[in-house]
Write a structure and sequence with these properties.
binds uridine-5'-diphosphate, 15 strands, 7-stranded parallel beta sheet, Rossmann fold, 6-stranded parallel beta sheet, 2 domains, alpha/beta, single chain
């Protein structure tokens, strides 16, 4: 194997590799992750899962140099996963580094113009020849690469079957036209469970026009895909998986929870950490030692995802609610001068010493969730976090912020009955139209009060039959999640089926 990147002595880097074992038995997946943590992390897990399936399986992850550099260590022990660099002049290469979500579509469009020709040339030159492209739906241009080189294009959208089906029923029925305001609840038609939602909570509730146009473009590409891999498992989403297959009209393979491919301590500890770059200052060992000293099921883990979306006054209410709950907690906070100022001026961290741990910027979420001391998860309902909480068998306190998170909350709290809603009704951020100004933090309404947080924690972690039942159900779903990837079980079989399907002749995307 020849590496063209001499400045980097990591064997995963490989922009033009020519393997000795370039023969027909090798199955070579080329993966294009979207440049944002919540999408890159599961895509890397998918590469790990696939290569763990058989020694003849290779994966190449194509991404920009900064993103690749941040995956390097976690892939070092996975020699059959390669990183191929898509060079770019962009200083900022990840949505997480943008000043706000308003910049995400211009960022993705200009990046696409720059890297598409290179990606095509690199794919053509890859050896072994690619067998299939798995691309985030947020990079719809990769469809053209797949059709050009004559391989199936499989999409990954990182959300739930439930969310996809609910959206299809909502828009297919035209029900939104019959409601008077964004905040008026209506029942989603034709679902197995009774699910109430309002317009403001739908994934497009926070979007500007540019984002809505982009989503339409993604949808057009998605319709041409050979199929979609889902980070989910059939026992979790039951009828919604079969319904999604019907609605989409292409193949859907549920192969999750993909995070379970991280079996070893180091894999769990490193996962996603490097993506934060220099900003990461967390000390895993200290936190894990503290957790070791806590009683089983006594600690609440609080993390609102990889993007910072809650305004400071709302975060302060959350902190006060944690204090009022009298429960032990780990609270992950993102860099925010205003919140830090409050923590310091209030002496909050000092006050909570021994009972509450604050992790700044990035927590080893998989390690923490699987620790026996953790008894509940306050989550923003990002789909990865939901599945990770499910796999850990934990009851959840749900605090959706935006996008598909409100629908994920309904699945957890109203369909699976393993979660309690904290009471957030409106998105915590709204993308601006051109020329529109950001509002001041102080103008933002504080929706969830510290009393709501305290009460929610009590319902999730406190005593009583209802809480016990919920915890029991969460444990049962957790067992199913772990079983799904065992030999001969649903996700394991779906991976085999997926590989079988993409190897069939005449499966090319056009
Ligand atoms: N994550 C983590 N540590 C953190 C924050 C997030 O490991 O401090 C991981 C988490 O385990 C999940 C991903 O980042 O895999 C976040 O994805 P999710 O879909 O939950 O939310 P998003 O950040 O995309 O809103």
């Amino acid at each position: 194997m020849t590496s063209t990147n001499s400045s980097n002595n990591n064997s995963n880097y490989d922009n033009n590799h020519h393997d000795d074992d370039d023969n027909n038995d090798v199955i070579h997946f080329v993966l294009f992750p979207l440049m944002v943590h919540g999408h890159t992390i599961p895509m890397v897990d998918i590469a790990k899962l696939l290569t763990q399936t058989a020694p003849s399986i290779r994966a190449t992850i194509m991404t920009t140099p900064q993103n690749a550099a941040r995956l390097r260590h976690s892939l070092a022990s996975h020699p059959r996963i390669h990183l191929t660099l898509l060079k770019t002049s962009q200083a900022c290469q990840n949505i997480d580094q943008l000043p706000s979500m308003n910049h995400s579509i211009p960022f993705l469009s200009s990046l696409a113009n720059e890297i598409q020709p290179q990606a095509l040339a690199l794919c053509k030159a890859l050896s072994p020849k690619p067998t299939c492209i798995i691309s985030d739906v947020g990079l719809p241009w990769t469809l053209h690469i797949a059709s050009h080189i004559g391989v199936p294009w499989v999409s990954f959208n990182g959300s739930s079957c439930f969310g996809n089906v609910a959206m299809s029923k909502i828009f297919g029925s035209g029900i939104c036209e019959s409601v008077e305001s964004d905040g008026e609840y209506f029942v989603v038609p034709e679902l197995e469970h009774r699910i109430e939602v309002c317009k403001a909570q739908l994934p497009n509730g926070y979007m500007n026009d540019g984002m809505i146009k982009f989503i339409k473009m993604m949808g057009e590409a998605e319709r041409k895909s050979y199929g979609m891999v889902m980070n989910s498992f059939e026992e979790l989403e039951g009828s919604y998986v079969s319904e999604m297959k019907k609605i989409k009209g292409y193949k859907v393979w549920c192969i999750g929870p993909v995070s379970l491919c991280n079996k070893h301590y180091e894999d769990k500890a490193q996962r996603g950490k490097e993506l934060r770059g220099e900003k990461d200052s967390s000390n895993n060992d200290e936190v894990m030692i503290w957790l070791d000293s806590q009683d089983p099921n006594s600690v609440l883990y609080v993390c609102l995802g990889s993007l910072h979306n809650l305004k400071t006054p709302q975060l302060i209410e959350l902190g006060l609610g944690l204090e009022a709950s009298k429960k032990a907690f780990i609270w992950v906070v993102r860099a925010s001068n205003k919140l830090e100022k409050w923590i310091e001026e209030e002496g909050f961290e000092e006050r909570m010493k021994g009972r509450g741990v604050i992790i700044r910027d990035w927590a080893p979420q998989l390690l923490i969730l699987s620790h026996p001391a953790i008894g509940g998860f306050l989550t923003h309902c990002g789909w990865n976090s939901i599945l990770e909480g499910v796999a850990a068998g934990l009851p959840m306190l749900t605090w959706p912020l935006f996008s598909d998170q409100f629908l994920n909350e309904k699945l957890v709290a109203d369909a699976l009955n393993i979660g309690v809603k904290v009471g957030a009704k409106y998105p915590a951020m709204k993308m601006k139209e051109e020329g529109e100004e950001e509002e001041e933090e102080e103008d933002w309404i504080v929706e969830v009060r510290k009393e709501d947080v305290k009460e929610g924690i009590e319902r999730v972690m406190g005593e009583g039959e209802e809480a016990e039942e919920r915890r029991k159900r969460a444990r049962e779903v957790g067992v199913m999640a772990n079983k799904a990837l065992e030999d001969g079980c649903s996700s394991h079989l779906n991976i085999a089926l997926f590989i079988h399907d993409i190897l069939k002749p005449n499966n090319i995307s056009t």
